[in-house]
Design a protein that fits this description.
single chain; 912 residues; seven-stranded mixed sheet; Rossmann fold
Amino acid sequence: MSEADRKRHDHVVLPRRLAGLALLERRYASPADNLLDLELAALGRPGDTVLDPWAGTGWTARRGVAAGLRVVAAEPSPFGQLAAQALLFAPDARAIQAAFSQLSASRRVDVPLRQHIEELYLTRCATCRRPVVADQFIWPRDAPAPQRKIYRCANCDLAVGALPERVAPIDESDLTKLGLDELAKSLQQPTATPAAAGGLAAADPNAELPQPAAPPPSLQPDSGPRWASTVNPQPVRVEPGDVRQGLQYQQLAQRFPVLDGRDEIVDELLALYTPRNLYALQTIANKIDAEFRDEPMAAVMRLALAACLLPASRLNGHPGRVASLRIAHGHVRQPASRNQREVNVWHLFDAAVAEVAGAVAPLAAGRATVRFATDLADLGGMAGANVLWVRARPAVVGQYLPAESIDLVVGAPAAPPSIDELSFEYLATAWLMGREAAETLPLEALFGSPVDRDGAAEATALRHAIASAAGTLKPDGWFSLLLEGNDPGPMLTVASAGAGVGLELVDIVVRESQRSGNGAILRFRKPSGEDRLRRAVQHRPLRLGAAGDRLTYPELAEAIERATVGLLRERGEPAGESRLAAAILADLQRTGLLQRLVLARHDPDAEDDVHVDAPPRRRGAPSLLASLVGEELARDDHPALVRVGDDAQPLWWLREPQLAESPIADRVEWATFSILSTAGRLDEVAFMDRIFSILPGVSAPDEELVRACLAAYARTGEDGQLQSDEDLGRRQADHSRMIALLADYGHRLGLRVWIAKREQERAYEGSTLGDLLRDDERRAYLPLVVRGPADALAEVDVIWYRRGRMAFLFDVEWTAMLGEPVLRRGRRIEPTDQQARFLVVPRERGELVRFKIERSPWLRDELQRQNWHVLKWQHLETLSARAGAKLDWLEPVLGLDPLIERGGEQLTIFGE
């Protein structure tokens, strides 16, 4: 890959994600396909071997195979491998629907599986007494039987037009179906309580459940055998306890591995399910194993069944949501809701298959042929194998691959699973894949004390993973990491870990977006052995010094200040910690300090002294760089930086603000106008790619700023193309017209008027704007009128003045670019009590002006200090069209939300 090819991809690219599967996104949040495609296209060539140490559900493998690459995917989770089978082979929607129909029609006790499962939930309508299939049964916590049922009756709905979903008390047939004969007989006794009107119970599902002592009357049982037991199709009565010791229960109990003989966890897990739902779930699982020999299709069905495990359990509270499963110290946390739902498993499974198909089927369109290899030598061999799946943790993946055998490493490090995620993975893996697969999970966290997810452990695991993967990388190979989130800790840890194993940091791309999510891409290159030897000879450890009562590295502190101050001056507005960290890393790499830093040895005995002033989240972090950067930014007495914003999302700004060039907000606005004026037809995605490519580097704009500028200049048409009415010639003509209106109104007020030198030569209505001034006004020496430099005053578009008494300074803008009039020229003109300043802008730029003011405390302070007011073009035209002139008429039209725009307050501006 040439340097020019890489440089084409060194800017922010907004992620474009397909609709994912919620079951997987909670545990295996995947990077966007377009970001992976970008990295693979920028750093790899067809035929290269790519390693992803954090394979997850095989997202890099899927995109790598589509790009003609060979992929080594490392993932220790068997459940992740199950999902990868479904996503890599990606059956289309018709194939999934055909497989589901096959499963539905498969025979179970001489009836189709669908019918067999739905008959488990067969009940009677409380109104017409016809058989219906219930959607849910509501169980009070720890009760021996349900008390309500929720169902839909097509006959009653067609005849009466009642509510689509009905709630009614259970009857004797429901209890007999569960083998609760004695309780069913008690329901057959008549009571004095009449049935509700229309045979319905209270429609409010949140109402207090009725007590079984006073149930509504029901019909007498029919002659002959009635409902069969949940697990026995024959008309025989089964005792309540027999169900749990049935074949399905015994099958499941053997699938869960335990530590130290603590079998009670299996009973607690299976006790989360009613006998009926336990039977239904395991029956479907057995049918999937029996019906499908095609592993990818079986994986799709198992994923759908996994999505049913928690909603079909007692964790599904009523009313409320499905609680998470948590296992700690070898015991299951019991559900806390007062009532629990027993949902119809088949209805749940049907919806889950549709959801999985919706996530998997779109991948089938661009799917390339996937063939698994048995080892690295098989990749690209005669069999055409292109994916090697390694069941290994990222920290040890290098042990399974030869040294310097990989051309490119691309990965998205994932946070370690939470205890809730690990608990569900234990349940799903054992239930769907068996004991042998579940034994590979980190069971110690479930049977012992839960692992504390502190930053130190995560940073250590990340460093070990980078070191292990870097050992497999060829010289001159690339190592790209895609990070998500706003925490700079992983970015700093990755950078220091990469430097520690000899990788050279080349690119840092920081993405800030509330809409698409924050993230960063770090690209490393592995230098040749000669380069590494040369650096090892040249580099020396950093010198340790003291600053007040704490230890520090003076060179590092200077580099942090240099990088942050340079970034803030370039942007002209505050920046967050992640962006500052990226700028610091870029400077450290450029100056060689990053490599020297990894040679520094941290004294464990002095840790409390070194980190005494660090924020709590930094203390104890194993990454020295993250700790030192956190310390430096957290200083309240920093000579150059000051912290602004709230504690949740802090920003940093300069104690003495200065502007190196136009603020980033103004540059984005001008780039927006330029693209819309010259690019022709383009949609929003193409516009975003274009504008971010114009503004690369760590100073790239955030998505919200870009969208605010786009909204001020364009709209999206019905065909999805951006449409803009902006025309430079027309805007310049409007600009001249506004200056003329101001000059005319100033004269009508009896004031002297000044027009900027550069504007006086502009054509206006057959003459020039300068012709609107009298001879003495053209010769005015402005420093005698307004205190300030003559060159700065001469650039003000319009000035109304009465010498020695008052001066009104007007800057007319057809854009919302405030850097020049406010932060550059405006700061040179000393504010006084005898002057006021006005920013005259079109109405369509008002929201963009507001957005810029809200995001920049420097701009906000300067507007207040310099006594600026906003006047919209439309209101200036209204003033000019009105007969006469008064200064008092200005007040109702000033501001981004002037009085005349507020409802019911038209004031006297429209006539007296």
